[in-house]
Amino acid sequence: MWLSTLRHRTSLRGILKSASTTAPQLHRTTRLIVPNARISTTPRANMSSSDDAYAAFLKKSQKDYSGGTTGIDDASPAHVTNTPQIERNPHPAINALGSERFYTSDVDEAFEPVSLSWTKESLPTGDEFAELVGGGSDVEVLEPSEWDRRGQYKDVVDAVSAASEAAVKVYRAERGTRVVYYVVGLDTKAGKVVGMRVKAVES
Known about the structure:
Blueprint: H1 2-22, H2 45-66, E1 85-86, H3 92-95, E2 102-104, E3 108-110, E4 112-117, H4 126-132, E5 138-142, H5 144-147, H6 154-163, E6 169-175, E7 178-187, E8 192-201
Antiparallel strand pairs: 1-4, 2-3, 4-8, 5-6, 6-7, 7-8
C-alpha cells in the first residue's frame, strides 16, 4: 500500500516538474514611478508666439479700419471733407466779433468762427455743402437778407464779407428741430470756406 502511494507521489512530482519547464513564461510589466513628478502648466514657446502674432494682427486690423471716421472714401475728390473746423486764427474782422455774439432762437447760442476745406473757385451747392458737413442734414442755401430779415446780424455778415473773396451765403443745415446756420464766404488762397456758424433750435 505504501509502495503504491510512494510511486503515485513520485509520478506526480515528475509531471509538475515537466510542466514547469515547458510552460511559457509570462512577462511582467514594469512601471516606472518618478517621485514628485509635476505637470508643467507653462505655455510652450510656439503657443506664446502664435498668440502674439494674433494680437498683432488684431491691432493692425483695428488701425486699418477704425481710422476712417470721416465717412469719405480715399478716392473722393480732394475738396471734400466732412469735418468743419473751428478756426483758430480767423480773419481780424471775424475775430473782432469776439465770443459774445449770440443768435436768438428757442435758445441763445454764440457764433463761432469756422472753416472747411474747399478748393473750388465758387461756393458749394446745397448738396455739396451737406457732404462737407458730414451728410444726414437737409441743407438750404439762403441769401443773407433772407436769413436776417431785420438786420440783427449785419455785423456778422459784414465781418464774413471782409474775409471772403465772394458774396456771402448762408447755409441752413437742419436735422429735426436742430439747425446750424453757416454764414460763410470763400477764401481761395487758403482753399477754404470761411465764416461763422451758430446752432439754433426752431420748434
